[in-house]
Amino acid sequence: MSYTHFNVSFPASHQYVAHVEINRPDKLNAFIEGMWLEMKTIFDDLSSSPEVRAIVLTGAGDRAFTAGLDVKAASEGLLGKDSLMGPDSDMARVAVKFRRTVAEFQECVSSIERCEKPVITVLHGITFGLGIDICSAADVRICTADVRCSVKEVDIGMAADAGTLTRLPKVVGAFGWVKEVALTAREFGAEESLRVGFVNAVHPSKVDAVNAALELAALMGRKSPVAVQGTKELLNWSRDRSVADGLRYTGVWNSAAVQTRDITNALLSSLQKRTPTFEKL
Question: Where, if anywhere, are coiled coils annotated (predicted)?
Fold first, then answer.
């Protein structure tokens, strides 16, 4: 798989794992429009690939997972008045065009959450703005001890619009803390991220964190893909609904899913004290 702004690899030592790397290190992996469109293509493709059961997302270089939106490029394009306003445009028409652009942007970030496979992000160095949006859409977050996080958007005069304000409160379960960091754009590090539940683990270096993420992804990849993909779907669906609705949907989902041969395979493997293997999905 060859892309302009991302590297996608499949480590031989970690079966069924895809490693996606944001690859613009000279610009701190800051996103321009083509990057988030490409990111959606990647996650949509990996979502349906039978060769992939878990995904690790990292940033190239030593300095940043991502500095977020490339503000200079955005000011000349996405956020620039000239990109939306013609000489005869009125504000309503400008708003309609901008709303469509924002919706497309949100869809690109949501492709991570919507991906059928579990996604693990590795935060290191600078992780600002869009970086928090992306990580909030992932399933598991691991970081380095030197990580510097910030919900940065208020510093550029806007409210975060790609998912942080919707997802982050549900990730950490600490609404007051989310309001504080979102309203101030102050930085928070590894210890605070771990304390509030934003990250699952902290590792001393990027190498250690990436290796831990790949090992975790490989562990997920060894499980039944029917079970893993169903679990992600049911957790995400139930998160935004009542317990009763979640139970009902789980019952409907499992009425089909429990008919898989994977259950018999797993039970027999347990009795025979061997590691089960599962067919591709």
Answer: none
